[in-house]
Automatic annotation (TrEMBL):
Organism: Pandoraea terrigena
Topology of this chain in the membrane: Single-pass membrane protein; Single-pass type II membrane protein
Leader sequence segment: none
Sequence similarity: Belongs to the ExbD/TolR family.
Organismal lineage: Bacteria, Pseudomonadati, Pseudomonadota, Betaproteobacteria, Burkholderiales
Protein name, per record: Biopolymer transporter ExbD
Membrane-spanning segments: 20-43
First-listed, main subcellular location of the protein, grouped into a coarse class: membrane
Gene3D superfamilies reported in the protein's UniProt record: 3.30.420.270
Subcellular location(s) of the protein: Cell membrane
Keywords: Cell membrane, Membrane, Protein transport, Transmembrane, Transmembrane helix, Transport
Amino acid sequence: MAMGSYSSDDGADDAMMSEINMTPLVDVMLVLLIIFIVTLPVLNHSVKLDLPQASSQPEDTRPAKIDVSIQADGTVFWDKQPVDETALKARLAQAAEAQPQPELHLFADKNVRYESVARVLSDAQTAGITKLGFVTAPDTK
């Protein structure tokens, strides 16, 4: 008989069992599952909160828009009403003070002199208008 051998001389197979007995493991897991099922409702703590109520209506937060048009002869229109240079400066200053500041949409005829457009832009910058957009018409073919 050699040392460290697991076989005996009588021919019986005394080799070590290499499989894990799963029955005790399953039993323990089932007991733990039952413990958690029983104790979980006891551990359910609740905190009373007064949550705010929200309306489902969307809030329109877009600022107003003002249309400023310049015709080919240099006439300036404020929302389709003709205005002179002093009235334009006063309205621009009033619009710059409004909260939220309205958007200024500038419509200029394609034949208007650049001087007229530059004067309106300068007046808007002096008044403190920060939201200004140029509106163009698409090319019709």
